[in-house]
Amino acid sequence: MPNLISIIIPTHNEEKNIPLVFLAVKKAMEMEVNYDYEIIFVDDGSDDESVHEIKKIAEANNNVYYLEFSRNFGKEAATSAGLHYARGGSVIIMDADLQHPPSLIPEFIRKWENGAEIVVGVRKRNKGASWFNKSCSLIYYRLINAMSETTITPHATDYRLLDCKVVKELNRLTERNRMTRALIDWLGFKREYMYFVADERANGEASYGFFELLKLAMNSMVSMSLLPLKLAGYCGIFIILTSGPLGIFIFVEKYIMHDPWGLSISGSAILAVIILFLVGIILACLGLMALYIASIHSEVINRPLYVLRKSKVKSP
Ligand code: UDP
Ligand code: MG
Fold first, then answer.
1. Over the stretch 32-80, which tens digit does the pLDDT of each residue have?
2. What is the domain extent for residue 265?
3. Domain check: are 215 and 246 in the same one?
């Protein structure tokens, strides 16, 4: 429905934030006279009163819907579930903790009206984040951009507006270990950026600790890039190329020419070169196996071969 805007809010233990975020979204959307809106709360197995709060709001407002997970499946799953049920011409994904200011929604919509198919919220400063978290995220973005084929904008957040075309494509992707952000970047489409300052979360604590973030980072690296697998192979080839000629040189110098330069290379040095050469072969074989795994991996995640923006064709 082109005049409907869906707002997806994943929640995990956000009892205090839910009424606040609802009021803030409502306030922002009431200024948008040309659009209707629906809010889809996706409760990701909260142990507090979040579900109760959501139900209360959904009963009082008939444009508020919810999905309640049977346990905690993680934010990526919650967002995906929301996207499956969103009916709007555009969909906005936002956190429940007010770190993604709802007052910016109108600006997201303006960019969409001006032709952007994806509007990505980019964080200028994150007030709550520690020095350690900031450096980890810097290293992560450097690494992943060096490794993967699609560029990922540093500090791009999950606060995004997606056109329904993008949502349709995103819903076709079947891979399980997913990072929604990275998948959206993979899809392409015309994008615009919205810069904002992330406040500290309104109430409660961030459920994403260091280890959850690490897991998410690993997932996105593994699914976005094959380079770590290939590195072992390159390393092996390098070792073969250096230790092979060295071994031949030692063999010729010592046993065929009977040490004309008086190097008197010891037995253990020769052994070391042989072992190095064999390790090189093993690593090169690992790299080769990595290529097979990589091709299996790309078959298994089953991404579409291409993504269309529009088409005018006759079906065969
Ligand atoms: N969240 C979720 N499932 C989880 C963890 C978090 O749905 O397992 C939601 C949470 O309720 C919030 C958003 O994801 O709306 C962002 O979570 P958080 O504030 O903990 O992450 P951060 O702001 O540190 O990225
Ligand atoms: Mg947060």
1. 888 999 999 999 988 888 888 898 898 898 889 999 998 888 888 899 8
2. 227-301
3. no
Per the structure, the count of domains in the chain is 2
Number of helices (H), then strands (E), belonging to the chain: the values are 10, 7
56 within some domain: yes
Which ligand sits closest to the CA of 69? Answer: 1
More confident residue, 149 or 27: 27
* Cβ atoms of 259 and 266 closer than 8 Å: no
**Can you tell me the distance from the alpha carbon of 96 to that of 316, in angstroms, rounded to the nearest whole number?**
47
pTM to 2 decimals? Answer: 0.72
185 shares a domain with 211: yes
Give the number of the ligand closest to the Cα of residue 206: 1
Q: Which atom in ligand 1 lies closest to the alpha carbon of residue 14?
A: 11
Considering only CA atoms, which residue is closest to atom 13 of ligand 1? Answer: 95
Q: What is the mean pLDDT of residues 92-108?
A: 90
